[in-house]
Amino acid sequence: MIPGAFSYHRPASVADAVKLLSDLGEDARPLAGGHSLVPMMKLRLASPAHLVDLHGIAGLKGIGRDGNSLVIGAMTTQHDLLASDDVARSVPILHEAALLIADPQVRYRGTIGGNVANGDPGNDMPALMLTLGATYRLEGPNGAREVKAADFYQGAYFTALEPGEILTAVSIPVPAPGHGYAYEKLKRKVGDYATAAAAVVLTMASGKVASCAIGLTNVHETPLLATAAAQAVIGTSLDAAALKNAAAAAEAIMAPAADTRGPVEYRKHVGGIMVARALQRAASRAR
Amino acid sequence: MNDLTPTREQRTAALEGLGCKRKRVEDIRFTQGKGNYVDDVKLPGMLHGDFVRSPHAHARVKSINSEEALKVPGVLAVITAETLKTVNLAWMPTLAGDVQMVLADGKVLFQNQEVAFVVATDRYAADDGVNKVVVEYEPLQPLVDPFKSMAPDAPVLREDLAGKTTGAHGPRKHHNHIFEWTVGDKDLTDAAFRKAEVTIKEMISYHRTHPSPLETCQCVCSFDKIKGELTIWGTFQAPHVIRTVVSLIAKLPEQKIHVISPDIGGGFGNKVGAYPGYICAAVASIVTGKPVKWVEDRIENLTATSFARDYHMTTEIAATKDGKVTGLRVHVLADHGAFDACADPSKWPAGFFNIVTGSYDFPTAHLAVDGVYTNKAPGGVAYRCSFRVTEAAYCIERAMDILAQKLGMDPAELRLKNFIKPEQFPYHSALGWEYDSGDYHTAMRKMMETTGYAALRKEQAEKRAAFKRGETREVMGLGVSFFTEIVGAGPSKNCDILGIAMFDSCEIRMHPTGAGIARMGTKSQGQGHETTWAQIIATEIGIPADNIQVEEGNTDTAPYGLGTYGSRSTPVAGAAIAMAARKIKAKAQMIAAYKLEVHEDDLEWDIDGFRVKGLPEKFMSMKDICWAAYNSVPPGMEPGLEAVSYYDPPNMTYPFGAYLCVMDIDVDTGVYKVRRFYALDDCGTRINPMIIEGQVHGGLTEAFAIAMGQEIRYDDTGNVVTGSFMDFFMPTAVETPHWETDFTVTPSPHHPIGAKGVGESPNVGGVPAFSNAVNDAFAFLGATHIQMPHDYWRNWKAAKTLGAVA
């Protein structure tokens, strides 16, 4: 549990950080909250020669608005999200999910940028970003670009980030007023990754589901957008048959690994249950 | 008398003696970050050691190349088995009469076994060095399943035992067999089963888990070449035993070895044994002439230093149709891992597992235990229990529920019907123990009344009907557990460790001003000895507990003792403390008689001093006697006021308790909720009720963890899959249920203050309560026995197997 030697860099601007990462190449890793990278280093599963600490870059932190989108700087911590009235009011599912991430100590340090950029299928925020239709801002040696969260995740720890690129902000279209939402997460204990989790954002009209998006956490090597499951409930009143169809459609795209949380069959089964429960709870909140 | 004269109640209260909820004095430093733990020991020039460990469960070590490691800046030495052979320390004896490799000698026998020890100027360089040592392995077939250990074609694990058909505990039946231990009357028991109207038989497994104290195992060894003295600061539950063991195996004179256990952050049995880290740090210090520190990390702790349990108990009960038990037959397959490093009293290869008849009046019983080797870490320590007592309690408490189910009886009623009756104490059990005291019926009935047991059963019946009607997806379980422990090892007639009788000790020195210092052979790891030991002395000699300094853990100053584990501190050292205090009091009485100019028989003890019988105004306080002891003792008496007592207990003590767990389980996810947990403990005389309650809370939390998910699990090739707190279930405050505690008091008749010990009861009694609740929840669906641990997915699996989930 002792990391190897590394050099520490603390750039003051995104441009400097990008330059450092480009110059140092694959031996360098950006450091945000460190809650994924540092444990990997202590186990020597990761041994970067250089850490580029992003905490010195003032512009990377904060929650603001760009039209009807909420823009969150990559170095904004989970604690900052929880403290934001705007987040609680306009994208309350973020607030609900952030509360389910580990414990207060982790949330004081863990950042939204690190959470979404690391490509860890166990992280909670990526599935939310898919559900909310978020866009990531990536800045690199060739300038800045916007990538949809839905196009970002390629495999476990593999993302659309190019060498030298840093994820600098997350942009989330604010869901319609009166939307219903829920993040259902089954975990063994505080601090554990989800055995399975489902995010739902929906709108209701005349007692029937008008629009719906469903995201899934930790049931595949990437976060999943369960499009067919969402389709299966649109136009329904979320009766038992519709919930069953949605759960089955979601389970059909799950491919979790067997681990100490349970065998594949169990993790898919409870994944389906999380979808059904999230749908019901979201509907109960919709106006 | 005027208003300022304290009342008897005030004088008693001022002592903060027995029965007082005295606040823990050690917490003043612990809560301010001022504890002093082994890792706080920092000596000039101190070096750091770290292990190269085996990635394989079973492999031949072809070569070890340290060349690149020695080039790492700061790395000074790489110690291997070859180095240790030059000082005859490549292997070390275990407490169980086996030998264990200190560093891999020719082969490795479990994953994360110690292969080489890298010594460097700092912790980082040591780890860098570890990563540069190149070890060439030839993998061998791993043996993971203990049920396959004694198969004819099972791989040979212990080549060093080739041809040895006798081990430390008798004949060996197979190359992977360690011992067979049998107790009881086989013929009589077999006959009881032949005549039985009803029998049950079940293989009840208690999975492998780990004590996992917050502070891992660690030490600092410092060898002074000039004086030829070795000082060891270590996380030792039994510092004197460590000193003797080091003396015997390192061939150093015992007076030249100084062992110091500073503050310890939890032990739970993990810190009883001797580990390769201690030997390597000592050798490294002798070789380099500098202090060497070794500190385990969490993964090393979980995977390499002593595990607990791993008992597989085939259990049979014979009974009459109306539920009277007539015989018990148990066979245990005990997985000891690669070396037999159980920390039991030497003559007890399966500890006190023969307490397995529990709280019930079995006319006959027979027990056989086979210990076997596997490619897993060695250990088998008493994780917050007396030796193998939690395994025994789980075995009998689960089996009684299975019998109740077969008979269609309520589990509480079945227990009440078979309890040893109060008038049967002292009770001689079929497997050889003499239970000192107990009143089981009262405790059980108090539990049933306080919890509203009958109403809970009614609610359960209604919920079961609702479940069958499809109105709920939750099942409700009531887990009854009634345990009898055997603690306080132990009487010299049956307990020793490496030939040293398991007494314990206390030395008390009173100072002239009415204060004193007391030292014991025990060592607190969080139990609160500094608080409770002073309370015993306070009541015995009438000096306020605040005026008694308690000191443990330094072998140079403390009297020899066997340490703290197996709930032995109160039964053994607690008795020594009372006896030493009584020696002080006896001398004090002579001094008081002299000063009050009466015969000592004319004096009577009165809370905090002696009073002349019939003359209440003629009184001498203990405080004043202390002063007199240093200036005006009777002619011919030596001055001073101090005493030492070594206490060899006449018997064990037998704490007991009645627990109830109320649990609801969602069959679709397997998620459980402990709705209620009630724990009634009878530990005899209660020294500090607040500390008892804290002990019960802690033990129940561990029991909850073990029963509901905490395990050391290996895959088929011998890799540990639960080697960190991500996967090894360590509940937080969020997961931990609320605990209700209660008590009855049945003093031990042979203990000087009637105390029995409590620290481990909740772990012993708690595990069966949780497991019985899960099993009871599923019983109406046809379950008879569901193995632990009962984590979510296994609960779901059980529901699915029973057809409750599609």
From TrEMBL, chain A:
Database matches in SMART domains: CO_deh_flav_C
SUPFAM superfamilies: CO dehydrogenase flavoprotein C-terminal domain-like (SSF55447), FAD-binding/transporter-associated domain-like (SSF56176)
One Pfam assignment: CO_deh_flav_C
Occurrences of domain FAD-binding PCMH-type (ranges): 1-177
Name the UniProt record assigns to this protein: Carbon monoxide dehydrogenase
Species assigned in the record: Bradyrhizobium iriomotense
Listed PROSITE patterns: FAD_PCMH
Keywords per UniProt: FAD, Flavoprotein, Oxidoreductase
InterPro entries, A to Z: CO_DH_flav_C, CO_DH_flav_C_dom_sf, Diverse_Substr_Oxidored, FAD-bd_PCMH, FAD-bd_PCMH-like_sf, FAD-bd_PCMH_sub1, FAD-bd_PCMH_sub2, Mopterin_DH_FAD-bd
From TrEMBL, chain B:
UniProt domain Aldehyde oxidase/xanthine dehydrogenase a/b hammerhead: residue ranges: 32-141
One Pfam short name: MoCoBD_1
Keyword Oxidoreductase part of the UniProt annotation: yes
Keywords: Molybdenum, Oxidoreductase
Superkingdom of source: Bacteria
Annotated InterPro entries: Ald_Oxase/Xan_DH_a/b, Ald_Oxase/Xan_DH_a/b_sf, Ald_Oxase/xanthine_DH-like, AldOxase/xan_DH_MoCoBD1, AldOxase/xan_DH_MoCoBD2, AldOxase/xan_DH_Mopterin-bd_sf, CO_Mo_DH_lsu
Protein name, as recorded: Carbon-monoxide dehydrogenase large subunit
Organism field: Bradyrhizobium iriomotense
